[in-house]
Write a structure and sequence with these properties.
four-stranded antiparallel sheet
């Protein structure tokens, strides 16, 4: 359950139209269906000087939808979790989606090798969004509870499905 739940936690925002990326040895070409909405632009390297990805092409996907959350909630935008084949890597960011009522731009590193092409069909997962409540809390650390750990280990030996049956709580994002 933890692996699958990570993939379905929150919401997936897809690529809204077909996009073809062609990377040559010297440039990146982007071809999309014409829309009334500016979907993709490039990030100039001057916008992120000294970043560890400054030698890579970076696109800016403008999400044509607005993410709106209740007061006190922000949203984490990130690469879809556990999608290991990705040739694009959206950079993670947190937006106060309870007050910022605008489409969000997602800076995305292009991991394609030179002289390759990538076709993203409409509906391809682009970014995963996870709303969360902004609450202050304090982390603590303490001594390891050997008895509790020993009891749980014994219970897991007796029932390998213990986590799913007794600890896991299904989340719902409606």
């Amino acid at each position: 359950p933890p692996f699958l739940e990570a993939m379905t936690c929150g919401y997936i925002i897809p690529v809204p139209v077909d996009v073809t990326l062609t990377r040559t040895a010297t440039e990146l070409n982007v071809d999309t269906v014409k829309t009334d909405f500016p979907l993709i632009s490039t990030h100039a390297p001057q916008e992120f000087p000294g970043a560890p990805f400054s030698n890579m092409p970076v696109l800016k996907f403008l999400i044509p939808w607005i993410v709106k959350t209740p007061p006190g909630f922000s949203t984490l935008f990130m690469q879809p979790l556990n999608h290991l084949e990705a040739q694009l890597m959206p950079l993670a960011g947190v937006i106060e989606t309870d007050t910022y009522y605008r489409p969000v731009a997602i800076p995305t590193m292009v991991l394609m090798a030179p002289n390759t092409q990538l076709v993203l069909r409409a509906g391809t997962p682009l970014v995963q969004v996870m709303p969360f409540e902004r609450k202050s809390w304090r982390a603590t650390s303490g001594a390891w509870d050997h008895q509790r750990m020993s009891d749980l280990e014994a219970a897991l030996q007796a029932n390998p499905h213990l986590y799913k049956e007794q600890h896991w709580k299904k989340k719902s994002f409606l």
